[in-house]
Amino acid sequence: MQFLTKLDGLLTHIKQVENETIDLTREAQLRFVQFIEKNNLHADDATIEAMQYQDIVSQQLSASIEAIESVQAYLQYFSKAFSEDDAIAMQSIQKMDDKLGNALEKAKAKHAAFSGRLGSNEENGIEFF
C-alpha cells in the first residue's frame, strides 16, 4: 500500500527533525555552560531552570521518537502483509481480466455470427449469447 510507504516517510522525516532539534538543544546547552565557565560566572536559579527546560525538551522529543519507531515497526508489518495480499489480489484481478476478455471476445464473435444470419433462412437458427 503506497499510503503506508508515504506515512512511513513522513514519520522518518519527523524523527530526523526531532533528532536535529535534540542536537541543537544539546549544543545550545553546551554553549551556555562554556560561556559560564569561560567568564567565571555562577548560574542563578533562573538560568539553571532554563537549562533544565532544554533537557526536558530533549527527553520529550526522545520519547516521541521512540513512539514513532514503535508505530513504524507496525507499519512495516502491515506493509509486508499488504504487499503479499496485493500480489494475490493482482493475480486474481489478472485472472478476472483474462476471463472477462475471453467472454467479451466470445460475445463479439456470437454477435458477429448473429449479424451475419440476419435475414437468412438457415435451418440452424439464431444462436443467442
How would you characterize this protein structure?
- The structure is a single chain.
- The protein has 129 residues and is an all-alpha fold.
- It is rod-shaped and about 100 Å long.
- Helices cover 85% and strands 0% of the residues.
- The chain has 2 helices and no strands.
- The mean pLDDT is 82.
Helix and strand sequence = HH
Q: Tell me the structural class.
A: mainly alpha
**Rg value:** 35 Å
Beta fraction of the residues?
Answer: under 5%
What's the total number of strands?
0
Low-confidence stretches: none
Name the assembly state.
single chain
Q: What value does the average pLDDT take?
A: 82
What is the CA-CA span between the terminal residues?
40 Å
Percent helix, as a range, is over 70%
Tally of contiguous helical segments: 2
Largest sheet data: none
Shape: rod-shaped
Short description:
The chain has 129 residues and is mostly helical. It is built from 2 helices and no strands.
Map the helices and strands.
Elements: H1 2-38, H2 45-117
Helix pairs in contact: 1-2
List keywords for this structure.
single chain; 129 residues; mainly alpha; 2 helices; rod-shaped
